[in-house]
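Q: Joint fold for the lines below.
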Amino acid sequence: MNQTILLKSRPEGTPTLSNFEFQKDDKTLSPSEGEILLEAKYISVDPYLRGRMSDAKSYVPPFNLNEPVASGVVAEVIASKHDTFKTGDFVSGMLAWKTQQISNGDGLTKVSAELAPLSAYLGVLGMTGLTAYLGLHEIGKPKAGETLLVSGAAGAVGSVVGQIGKLLGLRVVGIAGTDEKANLLKSDFGFDEVINYNTTTDMLQAIKTSCPDGVDVYFDNVGGTISDAALFSINRFARIIICGAISVYNKTETPTGVSVQPFLVKNSALMQGFIVSNYADKFPEAMTQLSEWLAKGQLTYRETIVEGFENTPQAFIDLFSGKNTGKMIVKA
Amino acid sequence: MNQTILLKSRPEGTPTLSNFEFQKDDKTLSPSEGEILLEAKYISVDPYLRGRMSDAKSYVPPFNLNEPVASGVVAEVIASKHDTFKTGDFVSGMLAWKTQQISNGDGLTKVSAELAPLSAYLGVLGMTGLTAYLGLHEIGKPKAGETLLVSGAAGAVGSVVGQIGKLLGLRVVGIAGTDEKANLLKSDFGFDEVINYNTTTDMLQAIKTSCPDGVDVYFDNVGGTISDAALFSINRFARIIICGAISVYNKTETPTGVSVQPFLVKNSALMQGFIVSNYADKFPEAMTQLSEWLAKGQLTYRETIVEGFENTPQAFIDLFSGKNTGKMIVKA
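A: Joint structure:
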């Protein structure tokens, strides 16, 4: 039996289960010439998908209503009439939220279950790792001895950003939402300090205290009041990577906050939106470095794995209350 | 008689005449070996000076209380014991607000009254022109056919930015505060369209209408609600030059507005604070190009010249209500 998850309605504010619809059918799928039949193994749920559920102008087109949601998926080839992909191969790519689907192979990459656990290709060796590496390098231009501040530090991207910062010789300060996350980031990921924004009453002062030399690079995954507070600590020539703004994705009104312009002009600072797909030419270089660090044990990662294809919408919704540590993945 | 203008108190909000104090003395100044005696001819008043009157951390140190204010000044050498500067030479540089002063020549540049009117060295051939040229090129990276939006368009920097945009083949839309300024920018400076923000009730829509292909480069001199409105029209890969934020310089509370982060991430857009002194290595190249355009009559400029050294503080204050068209200069 094949299951599909459709976008039934566009979320207003925080997404709910009622925005999604399950469709089941018993039709047997079989590939035509040049096609493969795929079975989903791991499904990535990511904050940026929230944007595609709205119909506002953005860098990727919105999902259509009553059509399947799509995201990064690792799947197994269970039947093939394709020259490149054989039965038993594993592939990674942007695929529909379906237990089984037909593909012509476009945009899919073969992945090896021996080199790394399959789920890693959705995380540290997938878009997550590439986002962390390329966002930090291409916009952040980090230099040893500088201070790197990371918000959403216990998230999939943030936890990799912080580790790369340490590998490059920076002082790394994270911002996360629980003491457990904060402790893990310090004990297992090498962060120098972590601020728990849920128990800190004065974020502005907390950042100043944790970053006594100011902030040279701010890797921003969250936006909102946390990012407002960070502005007060930026140094001259600071680089701010806007990778995400999870705190405002569910707002129904235009979000407001501290005006960044006076801070940028005072400090000759730079703030730039980062979308990993703009840097596709650098993927090979980044993958080589990430794989090497991973193989040497210099890069670690956490996953929050939710069991069951049917729990995909809930896993996505749980991202917005920070239920994940590291990459949130559904095991289909 | 020598007159000096001191900073008596730090402005709270909009500066007033009471923040300044005049000092007069009859002492005859005479240069020692290696020194020159200067008489101020033209004094530049600029919005950025407001920042130096506060004691907040910024890219230039604050003025000290009960000491002279300083800004760009063109002066005549009226006595010299210096090898480089002779009596009768004109020089430009950062000098105190004094009718006469002694200098050792450091940081001063000789300027020619034959090549251009002396006041131009405080404007189109001075920091103003350099700011316009280098801000636009180094951060804006303008390309022919793109749309350039300029706020504070009738100001000293804005009017040069718009003309350079036209010389480079861009569509140029300005934002200014009176119909007279708007008409002048279109008739004499070649702007394609100008929005009068004082008579426009919906800036967001006005920018959308004037920039039907969106905004690729936004040269921001003002900040505040005008810049908030511009965000809604930025294109993918837009570049926003934060050159000034005159609308918020006099605010006593931290200014707030629309959060820029979601706009930057959606559009892979860049926003960067620009301070001309960071680009000193590019000054010769920029001056060569500006002088060439000026000589060919391809670049025009307006000045608002206020007569009388004693009116310097009022001329500075008048910047914040937009009393100037083009560069505001005091003729000492």
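Q: Anything notable?
A: Residues 127-140 of chain B form the longest helix (14 residues). Chain B has two domains: 2-123+302-331, 127-277.
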